[in-house]
Amino acid sequence: MQEELTNNGSDSAHVSMPEASVTDVAETLVEQHALYVMPNPAIDQVWLNYSPGLVRVCLMDALGRRVLEVAPQGATSTTLQIETLAPASYFLVVVDTQGQVHNRKLIKQ
After folding, report:
1. Pick from 7, 29, 36, 105: most CB atoms within 10 A?
2. Tell me, what's the pLDDT at 11?
3. Is residue 6 situated within a structural domain?
4. In a domain, 94, yes or no
């Protein structure tokens, strides 16, 4: 990250940094794990696209209860049908073939 520091002849300094949003950071993290969740928030279904190394996708409620689970078995995409779930915040928990766990927040409207 490149910074520009200016003094302008005063006792205070001004730091100018390139603009980045929370969305930019979140998208970068999602790309690192190759897991895309769309749409989010969602109403009746959620489309997941991910690298073929993922073996299990669970949807958990706020109390940690498993409300939905799929086993993609190397598929690159799947759709979760969520129309019967109550509107709330949920957590997607994805396990890859190396046993690493990846989490995403999902909002059901």
Report:
1. 36
2. 55
3. no
4. yes
